[in-house]
Specification:
There is one protein chain. The protein is an alpha/beta fold. The protein has two domains: about 10-205 and about 325-375, Crotonobetainyl-coa:carnitine coa-transferase, domain 1 (Rossmann fold, 3-Layer(aba) Sandwich), CATH 3.40.50.10540; about 230-315, 2-Layer Sandwich (formyl-coa transferase, domain 3), CATH 3.30.1540.10. The protein has 15 helices and 14 strands. It has helices at about 15-25, 55-60, 75-85, 100, 105-110, 135-145, 165-185, 195-205, 205-215, 250-260, 275-280, 280-290, 295-305, 315-320, 365-375; strands at about 10, 30-35, 65-70, 90, 115-120, 150, 155, 190-195, 230-235, 240-245, 310-315, 330, 340, 355-360. It is elongated. The protein starts with 7 loop residues before the first strand and ends with a helix.
Length: about 375
């Protein structure tokens, strides 16, 4: 049995953050009814990479039911009220205030259904000063300062996936589960809310502490950690990058003795502890590069393994596709074609993963749901 079997989720969702949250609820066994506008969730049109469907959409909308509603009309508003009256969880990521103006504000919904858990996702929150700001992933990456510390020394860079969206979806999922635990104790639902900006800003705690109380915000370092050294990529004689991670002084000594084969570097006055190594990073990197650049990747990685140190390849997406650790699952597109994507990371000891779930066509379940929730 899956942990959320028997629970009903109604979600007025679009793009990535809210659909990511409800995708996790589907995986846990919940029934998710996705409310779409007649044109559908605009993420359906992001690309056609998934055998004609959007890669974003197939990833986080498997196993959901789609109902098309214009809840500004009496008939569709009636159906939406009927859905929410029987729901355990209601999720939405429309613009702040949009649902409240339509008569579906979260507080009023919980008043009618005291066991209901509501989850409101916004871009910047609902404060008067920010609620009108439009927010998408890259905008929030930039506004939060994340872009400013990402990329190489000469250029800012976007994180390569929609990390603010994804992180907000993960946060929403966790908050909903916490609300379910609370309901199991109190018998009452709760309202939870989060914004893309709040989630991303919280991740920026360490850079902000450095900026306000330390020696300044981290600078862009490409494939090197801003406050741990050595922790980054070094190129061997064959032009291959390998990332090594030294986490403590014991590992630093082994790195110098076994990998660099020069124990004197470990006790050099400029490199005797992590803070000194960070302060003298240019000199440190010069010492490492002079040695590592004289051996090939196979030899370097063999020494790292012998020293029992953490290291990894700088892989391409093609390398990911063939990685020995990559688990996959099969999904179905709207046209019922199969493709394989990475497996959901959560593994249950007593439940097998669900393969072959499909994504719904726009409004595919509208009539069925209308008959179920508003029978004649």
């Amino acid at each position: 049995m899956r942990p959320l079997e028997g629970l009903l989720v109604v979600s007025i969702e679009q793009a990535v953050a809210a659909p990511f949250c409800t995708a996790r609820l589907v995986e846990a066994g919940a029934r998710v009814i996705k409310v779409e506008r007649p044109a559908g969730d605009f993420a359906r049109g992001y690309d056609q990479a998934a055998l004609g469907d959007s890669s974003y959409f197939v990833w986080i909308n498997q196993g959901k039911e789609s109902v098309v509603l214009d809840f500004k009309t009496p008939a569709d508003a009636e159906l939406l009220h009927a859905l929410i009256a029987r729901a355990d969880i209601f999720v939405q990521n429309l613009a702040p205030g949009a649902l409240e103006r339509a008569g579906f504000g979260s507080a009023s919904l919980r008043g009618k259904n005291p066991r209901l858990i509501t989850c409101d996702i916004s871009g910047y929150g609902e404060a008067e000063a920010v609620k009108e700001l439009k927010a998408y992933d890259l905008l929030v990456q930039a506004e939060s300062g994340l872009v400013d510390i990402s990329g190489g020394p000469g250029e800012r860079g976007r994180i390569g996936v929609s990390i603010s969206d994804i992180g907000t979806g993960m946060t929403a999922h966790a908050a909903v589960l916490e609300a379910l635990i609370k309901r199991s104790v109190t018998g009452k639902g709760s309202g939870v809310s989060m914004s893309l900006f709040d989630v991303t800003a919280e991740w920026m705690t360490v850079p902000l502490i450095h900026a306000e109380h330390g020696k300044g915000a981290p600078t862009r370092g490409g494939l090197h950690h801003p406050s741990i050294a050595p922790y980054g990529a070094y190129q061997t004689s064959d032009g291959i990058d390998t990332i090594v991670s030294i986490q403590n002084e014991r590992e630093w000594i082994r790195y110098c003795e076994i990998v660099l084969q020069n124990p004197s570097i470990a006790i050099h006055k400029k490199f005797a502890n992590n803070n000194l190594r960070v302060e003298n990073r240019a000199a440190l990197d010069a010492e490492i590069e002079a040695i590592v650049g004289g051996i090939d990747a196979s030899e370097y990685r063999s020494r790292l393994a012998k020293a029992d140190l953490a290291f990894g390849a700088v892989n391409t997406i093609a390398d990911l596709a063939n990685h020995i650790a990559l688990r996959r699952r099969r999904i179905r597109t709207v046209e019922k074609d199969f493709l394989e994507i990475p497996a959901t990371p959560i593994r249950w000891s007593d439940t097998d993963p669900i393969d072959g779930k499909g994504i719904p066509a726009i409004g595919a379940d509208t009539e069925k749901i209308r008959e179920e929730f508003l029978p004649d």
